[in-house]
Amino acid sequence: MYVESLNINNYRNYDELFITFDKNTNILYGDNAQGKTNILESIYMAATTKSHRGSKDREIIKIGEEESHIRLCIKKSDISHRIDMHLRKSKNKGVAIDGLPIRRTTELFGLLNVIFFSPEDLSIIKNGPSERRRFLDLELCQLSRLYYQNLSSYSKILNQRNNLLKQIAYNKSLMDTLDVWNMQLVDYGRKVIKERQNFITMLNDLIGEIHLKLTSGKEKLEIIYDKNVGEDEFEQVLSDKVHVDLNYMSTQTGPHRDDIMFMINGIDARRFGSQGQQRTVALSLKIAEIKLVKNIINDNPILLLDDVMSELDSSRREALLEEIKDIQTIITCTGYDDFIKEQVVINNVYHVTNGTVTKI
Q1: Based on the number of CB atoms within 10 Å of its own CB, is 166 exposed (0-12), middle (13-18) or buried (19 or more)?
Q2: pLDDT by residue (tens digit) across 12-55?
Q3: 312 and 274 in one domain?
Q4: Residue 166 belongs to a domain with what CATH number?
Q5: Are 69 and 86 in contact (CB under 8 A)?
Q6: Mean pLDDT over residues 231-240, rounded?
């Protein structure tokens, strides 16, 4: 699987751009704030319908315009496909595959698997639980349409239950309707918990060896799924803590409060790890993610590297480059001298300057 070409209109700082990609290594270089990351973001957007930055559609559309378009041509199993995405300020986005509009986002998932790696991924390790849940959800939604449906249903029911909790504060007779939402919340919540647990188990099967190699055998890394509540006990805990929910007027129990922990030799990397250790954990996580996606889809994902090489020392850079030999990689950087030094085979080089892309 690889991206053949990208065409964007009124996207961020681009009026219009058409660019083709080699199926191996592609480099976009230029100064900061010229539009390199915007190209990677548009590819990720076409694959997942979401910005890796968490931006809303109206923030992506070029200032002064009402709509934006992305057209991504890909090749998968020797068959070409086209993804068209229409972003609008005042309406939901429209998506078509091979010229046919899709009605549900899930129809897009699995067509193109993309892994995004940027210096901001350090926030997965350093920041609060929401960053780590977002990491889990973005990857799982690409890999499993069923997970997306279960997560989406859980989120909708959670919002409805929270609204009901607020209403009960003013109308106690509505308490009788709470059980209906509890049953549905538990049903979908259990499915989300189970899929997250399976995903973390599969990551753990890979990440320990990767991290051990990156640290010359000094550090053992394990991911711990810090569940807010277990599958089997969810229903009972939700019932027992109803008075807490009524007090806060929001649901305090469920997978929407989950977290994951990265343990280095039994010590929490977020709380006690150095900056260097946290960077290595982030790199181990991405390499494990690449390997896991390969195993699951029996194909290579597309790797988007946003200015990460400058953040890695030579040994860690070498470990990452080893993983990208056989997969399409699109890399942004401020200069590509380092890649020449590393003797990386570069297939395409583009210079990006203020929304203009020139092939070198």
Answers
A1: exposed
A2: 999 999 999 999 999 999 999 899 999 999 999 999 998 888 78
A3: no
A4: 1.20.1050.90
A5: yes
A6: 96
Two structure tokens written together for 152 = 């989406």
Whole-Å CA distances, 82 to 72, 101, 292: 6, 11, 26
DSSP assignment string, 16-29: EEEEE--SSEEEEE
The annotated binding site for ATP is made up of 30-37
Among 88-97, 216-225, 242-251, 342-351, the least confident range: 342-351
- Provide the CATH number for the domain around residue 52: 3.40.50.300
196 and 69 share one domain: no
User: Is residue 261 over pLDDT 80?
Assistant: yes
> Which of 268, 298, 328 is the endpoint of a domain?
298
Nearest CA-CA partner of 114 in 299, 238, 274? 299
pLDDT of residue 123: 83
Q: What is the pTM of this model?
A: 0.89
Asked if residue 115 has pLDDT above 90, the reply is: yes
Alpha-carbon gap, residue 127 to 308, rounded angstroms = 19
Same structural domain for residues 202 and 263? yes
Judge if 215 and 67 occupy the same domain. no
Distance CA 153, CA 136 (A): 17
Q: What angle do CA 15, 18, 22 make, to 5 degrees?
A: 145
State both tokens at 359: 């092939």
Say whether pLDDT at 103 is over 60.
Answer: yes
Residue ranges with strand state E in 40-78 = 67-76
**Whether residue 267 is found in the same domain as residue 316:** no
Give yes or no: residues 128 and 258 share one domain: yes
Residue type, 111: L
| Enclosing domain of residue 7 | 1-113+300-360
Output the pLDDT for position 345: 77
Could you list the residues known to form a binding site, using ranges: 30-37
